[in-house]
Amino acid sequence: MSKKVLILSASPRKGGNSDLLCDQFLRGAKEAGHEAEKIFLRDKKISYCTGCGTCQSNGGKCVQKDDMAEILDKMIAADVIVMATPVYFYMMNGEMKTLIDRTVSRYTVISNKEMYFIMAAATSSKQALERTLEGFRGFTSCLSGAREQGVIYGTGAWKMGDIKGSKAMGQAYEMGKKV
After folding, report:
1. pLDDT at 27
2. Rounded to an integer, what distance in angstroms lies between the CA atom of residue 26 and that of residue 83?
3. How many Å apart are CA 169 and CA 163, to the nearest integer?
4. Which of 37, 104, 150, 173 has CA atoms 20 to 30 A from the CA of 179?
5. Which CATH class is domain 4-177?
6. What is the predicted pLDDT for the residue at 167?
7. What is the rounded CA–CA span in Å between residue 57 and residue 91?
8. Dist. CA 179–CA 165, nearest whole Å
9. Total Cβ atoms within 10 A of residue 27
10. Angle between helices 94-102 and 68-77 (to 10 degrees)
11. In the chain, what are the domain boundaries?
12. What single DSSP character describes residue 125?
């Protein structure tokens, strides 16, 4: 059965290491017959959540006029959500954290999703990426019925393109195929 796969790439660089891993996941998912889309967050205008609380009293409509409403609609409609980030100081980058914060208006209807996480970092230690993974898990623990299905650790990738030829590239492709 075909699934809707939404890949959220928080790389600040097209063709950056985490973005390349997204492309591999996307290729695998499409080859397996799924409807798959990648959103490159850098191309979108997503303002910071101001914590005004208006969305909590008006049916989940954020007062900010940017691209987040469209992305949130796609997150709600997806069967599978892939969240990918470069790792900065052992945490997700600002683009991904801003996206997560902005789901506050409708996070209660992002439900029953299969979740995959992709992280790319200069460190060669998977253990060093656990803080980043816990950030993703903290978010998904707030989502009803979210099920973690896979994690890709793109380690040892400092310079743009370092991830090419790594085991993580094959893992991303295979995970995409097995969605």
Report:
1. 98
2. 12
3. 7
4. 104
5. alpha beta
6. 97
7. 32
8. 22
9. 15
10. 70
11. 4-177
12. -
